Structure formats: C-alpha cells, structure tokens
Amino acid sequence: MKAIFFITLFSAFFANIKASVLVVEGKFQNKNIYIQNAFGSNGVGFCTTEIKVNGKISTDEINSSAFEIDLGSMNIKSGDKVIIEIVHKSDCVPVVLNPEVLKPRPTFEIVTMNISSTGLLKWTAKNESGALPYIVEQFKWNKWVYVGTVQGVGTPDGHDYSFQVSTHSGENKFRIKQAGLGVPAKVSNAVMVNAMVEKPTYIISKDGKSLQYSNETAFEIYDAFGTVVKKGFGKETGIDNLGKGTYILCFDNSVTEFEKKK
Q1: Secondary structure (3-state) at 260
Q2: Residues 50, 55, 59: CA angle, nearest 5 degrees
Q3: Residue 217 host element (H or E)
Q4: DSSP code, position 39
Q5: Count of H helices and E strands in the chain?
Q6: How far apart are CA 190 and CA 195, in angstroms?
Q7: What letters, b where the CB count within 10 A reaches 16 and e where it falls short, cover 149-170?
Q8: Residue 15, φ and ψ in degrees, nearest 5
Q9: Residue 107: which of 76, 153, 73, 173 has the closest Cα?
Q10: CB 144 within 8 A of CB 152
Q11: pLDDT, tens digit, 9 for 90 and up, residues 73-90
C-alpha cells in the first residue's frame, strides 16, 4: 500500500509540472546560440527540458546553468531559416543571451551601381544574408540626408533595385546603406550626377511671414539650438510662427542664415 501511495503522489507531482515553449526565430549567420539556464522554482532540475531546432530534437547538453545550441553541427547552411523551440518548465524561463545572431546582417556586395541624368538610381547587389531595407541617402547641406528606402530581397544571388531621386542644382552625390541589429551599418561607394537645374534663390516676403524660393526646392530650417523647426519641399516656407532671431536655412545644395525680425 505504501509503494502504491508513493507512486501515486510521484505521478501527481509531475503531472502538475506543465511545460512552456520559448521560440526564437531568424536566419543562421554562422553563430551559435547561448542559453542561461536556471533551476526550477522548486529547486529540482534545470528549467530547460528540451531543445528543438527546425523540428528536430537537439542533442546538446542542457542540464547546466548555461549551455550552447550548436547550430553549426546540424547541417544548417548560412542564410537558412532557423526556428528554435526551447521547452521549459512553466514556473521559470531560460534566457537567450545572444538572439541578435539570428537577425539579418548587412553583408551585401555591390555588383553595379549608377544614376541616370533623370535621377534614376539603379544598383545590383549580391550576397545578402537577410531581408534588410536599403536606405538611400543624398549628400547635401554638409551631411548625408535620408531620401528613401527599398526593401532588400535577402538572398545571396544577385538582385536588381532602383529608386527615383530628386536632384538639386550642380553635382549630386548618392549612396545606399543597410543597418543590422547590433552591428555597424554597411555603406556603398557614392555615385554622382550633374543636374542641369537652375539654382534657386530666396527672399523673405514683405510681411515677414514666409520664405519664397525662385524654384521648388527641398528645405530645412534650424533654430539657434540646432533643432529642425521647418522641413519640406516647395516654393514657399511659412515662418510666421517662428520667434524673432537667427535661423539656419538649408535649401537646394546651400546652407545660409536669415534673420526673423517680426
């Protein structure tokens, strides 16, 4: 009777220990995953009970306070999708120490890149290891300025991309870049085109309420603290709501100052 009673209690104890699953997804970037394990809240055994990688049970040793999931030994190729299921006791949660290694990294290589006289930027890239957006930038106002984005495909074979940019007068310089989680951004070389666009001028309206440009242009206005207070595109910028003082005006490819007097 005692033996039966003990077995009944033993079975009931483990029946009440429910399992939960922590899922980590991404693409294999030739890096392994490290797990910080813990004891269950009752102090019996470790938190993690099983590891599955892409549906297959891992043979990695998990009965320790920290362990490694060796993705490199599982015939997973660089760029392959990875789904890790960490089965654990419901009263504790293991910690994935480096989940960022499964996130896309900027590894693209430019095969060709050019820009037409009409401002059509084209490039062919290869060796992408994840679907990261390409960020298009233009150099003006003594800095690289965001222009737009094009979504990358994310596979190693070659892919063609294009983006229509707006040009200012004179020499225009453009580049692309990708940024990944926890790693430096990767930047292409710049391409240049000379635009046959008349350089605009500006005046302050007689009532002091606006800046008026001779041609449509992109513009930014900064206050004395370097804060952007106006930004846009057009032939006019309303400044009636700005306080008196000196402002920096960036337009076309020029940087200048103006005084708001009223």
Answers
A1: strand
A2: 45
A3: strand 210-222
A4: B
A5: 1, 20
A6: 16
A7: eeebeeeeeebebebebebbbe
A8: -65, -25
A9: 153
A10: no
A11: 888 888 788 999 999 998
List residues bridging with 186 in a β-sheet.
178
Report d(CA 165, CA 146) in Å as an integer: 11
Pairing of strands 202-204, 228-238: unpaired
Q: Which amino acid is at 39?
A: F
Residue-level length of the chain: 262
Stated pTM of the model: 0.72
CA distances from 187 to 80, 98, 128, 156, 162 (A): 24, 25, 13, 18, 16
pLDDT in tens, 140-184: 999 999 999 999 998 889 999 999 999 999 999 999 999 987 778
Chain mean position to CA 208:
42
**Is 1's pLDDT higher than 50?**
no
